[in-house]
């Protein structure tokens, strides 16, 4: 599906031991991503997207966490690397844009220092060269006065500018793989589109692979090559973007697609959302986790969990006993149309 893979995740589990019991955040995820390609990971809040991204990076709390499975990046299993070697890899070969820039950026360190530190550490640049590169990077990510931004603290920047700084920090050493976890959280729709377009342009220029994590399936529709849908810590459907949008197999995916506003939808029309709530991560069941919310559920769904199995379409897999079987639901969905990129830029 992905050509020459840069990352292959196999049967990844991540569980947290808490006072309330064992929280099973990621349950047997397998995926791969090709060089220069984009994998979108979508799902409702709490479905395990951030834990999956952090688990791939090995950025988890050191206590009370159980991780198993393998994460092979450029032929090396990251789960078997020692922390020192991992630190060398992160920033240089793999980088992450975090969901919350205010916690990811150091609030008491000037923006310039946060970028040059990484360049000096990983690429052994001189102070002068690192500063020049930092200015070039801030220009590239669309910061209007890069020289001034270097001297500022993150709290002095607007939300959109902070996201751009986060991207500059992540891209400083030209990583081969970027994990972008909700990189536009909290931004208004126009700035969100600008930041996502910018990320995509930089990705293409650098032939960088990207895992784009979002709760909004509309965000990845025209930006991802392949989309993985997560539910209760599992991938329940994964497919090339067009195939997922035009012929979803799993009722949950169908529900997510229906919750996207369409251009043709009258402004006063209420959006459909998926009724019910995601399952309690402490509960262990043997059936399909979506069953309590699924209009198609039958006895078998309650008793047996469906495996992620291939459909007739190449690269399309789904986990459902009674799939929708290729209903042509959203062939003309506006999110699949080429976007007018220029009009979204400042
Ligand atoms: N450090 C932790 N200890 C215990 N449970 C955790 C921890 N981190 C996450 N979880 C739990 O794991 C589950 C998945 O959380 P995660 O943050 O990955 O969701 P998400 O899909 O990223 O949601 P959102 O869209 O809100 O960001 C949740 O039930 C969450 O409470
Ligand atoms: S396996 Fe059953 S409950 Fe689960 S999504 Fe399919 S039809 Fe619905
Ligand atoms: Mg998250």
Secondary structure elements and their pairing?
Blueprint: E1 5-18, E2 21-34, E3 38-42, H1 49-57, E4 65-73, E5 76-77, H2 83-89, E6 94-97, H3 101-104, H4 111-123, H5 127-140, H6 146-150, H7 159-171, E7 177-181, H8 189-206, E8 209-214, H9 217-221, E9 226-231, E10 234-240, H10 241-246, H11 251-258, H12 299-303, E11 309-310, E12 317-318, H13 341-344
Parallel strand pairs: 3-8, 3-9, 6-7, 7-8
Antiparallel strand pairs: 1-2, 1-4, 4-5, 9-10, 10-12, 11-12
Helix pairs in contact: 4-5, 5-7, 7-8
The structure holds adenosine-5'-triphosphate, iron/sulfur cluster and magnesium ion (MG).
Briefly, what is this?
This protein has 346 residues and is α/β, with parallel strands linked by helices.
Structure explained in plain terms:
- With 346 residues, the protein is of the alpha/beta class.
- The model is unreliable at 263-271 and 330-346 (pLDDT under 50).
- Helices cover 32% and strands 22% of the residues.
- α8 links the parallel β7 (177-181) and β8 (209-214).
- It starts with a strand and ends with a helix.
- α4 (111-123) packs across α5 (127-140), α5 packs across α7 (159-171) and α7 (159-171) runs parallel beside α8.
- The chain has a domain at 1-93 and 214-346: P-loop containing nucleotide triphosphate hydrolases (Rossmann fold, 3-Layer(aba) Sandwich).
- It has 13 helices and twelve strands.
């Amino acid at each position: 599906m992905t050509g020459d893979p840069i990352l292959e995740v196999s049967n990844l589990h991540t569980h947290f031991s808490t006072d309330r019991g064992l929280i099973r955040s990621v349950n047997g995820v397998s995926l791969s991503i090709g060089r220069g390609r984009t994998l979108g990971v979508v799902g409702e809040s709490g479905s395990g997207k951030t834990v999956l991204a952090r688990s791939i990076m090995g950025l988890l709390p050191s206590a009370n966490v159980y991780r198993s499975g393998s994460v092979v990046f450029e032929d090396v299993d990251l789960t078997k690397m020692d922390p020192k070697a991992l630190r060398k890899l992160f920033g240089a070969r793999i980088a992450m844009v975090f969901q919350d820039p205010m916690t990811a950026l150091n609030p008491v360190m000037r923006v310039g220092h946060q970028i040059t530190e990484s360049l000096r550490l990983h690429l052994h640049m001189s102070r002068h060269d690192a500063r020049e590169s930092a200015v070039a990077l801030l220009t590239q990510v669309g910061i209007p006065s890069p020289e001034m931004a270097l001297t500022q603290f993150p709290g002095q920047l607007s939300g959109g500018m902070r996201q751009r700084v986060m991207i500059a920090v992540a891209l400083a050493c030209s990583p081969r793989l970027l994990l972008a976890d909700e990189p536009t959280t909290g931004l208004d729709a126009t700035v969100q589109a600008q930041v996502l377009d910018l990320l995509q342009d930089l990705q293409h220029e650098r032939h960088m692979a990207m895992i784009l994590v979002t709760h909004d399936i509309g965000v990845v529709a025209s930006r991802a090559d392949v989309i993985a849908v997560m539910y209760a810590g599992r991938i329940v459907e994964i497919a090339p973007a067009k195939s997922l949008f035009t012929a979803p197999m799993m009722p949950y995916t169908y529900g997510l697609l229906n919750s996207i506003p369409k251009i043709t939808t009258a402004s006063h029309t209420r959006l459909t959302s998926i009724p019910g709530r995601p399952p309690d991560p402490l509960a262990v069941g043997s059936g399909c986790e979506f069953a309590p919310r699924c209009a198609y559920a039958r006895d078998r769904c309650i008793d047996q969990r469906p495996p992620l199995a291939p459909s007739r379409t190449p690269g399309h897999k789904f986990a459902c006993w009674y799939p929708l079987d290729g209903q042509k639901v959203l062939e003309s969905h506006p999110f699949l149309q080429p976007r007018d990129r220029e009009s979204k830029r400042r």
